[in-house]
Design brief:
mainly alpha; 4 helices; signal
């Protein structure tokens, strides 16, 4: 062993490995909600299944999905899962996406 060098300890290796795993899974989670446009229709059908106003819900959901490539899970709420979908507002300031 050369002077001034010392091998990595197990704790150092574990830290580096943990960091790599975290970076990998954070990028996977970031892309989790991104859809292809062809996936919008089934997601919006489920999203709008709980409302009595299916036509307008589907119209706006499909429009939002085509732009944001994301539909929140469930039939109501959970919009924080799709920031674009959540932040798109009407001219009056209300939510555009169902």
């Amino acid at each position: 062993m050369a002077l001034g060098t010392r091998p990595c300890s197990n704790a150092g290796l574990f830290l580096i490995f943990s960091l790599l795993v975290f970076i990998t899974f954070s990028s996977v989670a970031e892309g989790y909600n991104r859809l292809h446009p062809r996936d919008c229709s089934p997601r919006c059908t489920y999203r709008c299944s709980g409302t009595s106003h299916k036509k307008p819900c589907m119209f706006f959901c499909l429009k939002c999905c085509a732009t944001c490539l994301c539909v929140p899970p469930g039939t109501y709420g959970n919009k924080q899962a799709c920031p674009c979908y959540n932040n798109w507002k009407t001219k009056e300031g209300g939510p555009k996406c169902p």
